[in-house]
Amino acid sequence: MVGAKKKVMSYEEVRRQRVEENKKRMEDLNLLKLAKHLRPQPNPSSNPSPQAKPRARRPAVLAPARRSSRIADQPSVSYREVSATPPLSLSQTFSYQRRDLLNRVYASSEVRQYAIHRAEELQSTLDPEHPSFVKPMLQSHVTGGFWLGLPSLFCKTYLPKEDEMMTLIDEGEEPSQTKYLAGKTGLSGGWRGFAIDHELVDGDALVFQLVSPTEFKVHIIRANEVGGDSEKENQDEEEEEEDEALEKGKRAKAKAAEKENKNEEDDDLDSTRRRSKRIRTGRK
């Protein structure tokens, strides 16, 4: 242990001597002063570079375009596309979006089938000389893409072979224009307005009757009215069942009372007979 400690002390002593020798050599060579001079010194008098100011925009000068003297007196030609229908205002667009998202009506399968059944009954009463078909309404027809596909066989048989403007006449004889696309066998432009104006919802069933090559008579069977009719019929049936049950109860009570009265009369008759028999026996 003592020998190891002496070795450690001798190593530390040698290291300390070497450090002092190196320090003395650096002082002799002025290396410490040179290192201080080589460090960059901050300059307190230097000012930061000023920020560049944004350049002001020059106002646009709306001067008329240079034109030839031959056509200077004529009005300028506008190549801007002009829509045939006026654009919707912001309030109209917002109200339509609210109608799409908040006022959606999803019909049950029972209501949908009953509306189709009512539409087929109405179709059977129409003039057979004018071809017709039944079209149930879906969400894509009345609140989504507003594209109404028609039966392909009906279109190929009765409708024009090329794109044509069709007239939809409602039950109030109000006409509406819509675009028929022959290649896609459906109604596109104008159908959206018809669906919104007539407040069509999912589950409604429409009967289209072709009264002329480019005119449809449209009969609307509404799902909410169908649901009300079915509920009323169910209520009437329940009331009839209750009335029948009451009548049966009354008849059963009457029969029971009649039977009870008859039993009482029989008992009275038996007691009378027994009493008369005892009297005759006593006399003998």
UniProtKB/TrEMBL annotation:
GO terms for cellular component: nucleus. Residues 234-245 have a biased composition (Acidic residues). Residues 1-78, 227-284 are annotated as: Disordered. Signal peptide: none annotated. Residues 274-284 have a biased composition (Basic residues). Pfam families: B3 (PF02362). Keywords: DNA-binding, Nucleus, Transcription, Transcription regulation. GO terms for molecular function: DNA binding. SUPFAM superfamilies: DNA-binding pseudobarrel domain. CDD domains: B3_DNA. It is found in: Nucleus. Residues 9-30 have a biased composition (Basic and acidic residues). Residues 48-66 have a biased composition (Low complexity). Residues 133-224 form the TF-B3 domain. This is TF-B3 domain-containing protein.
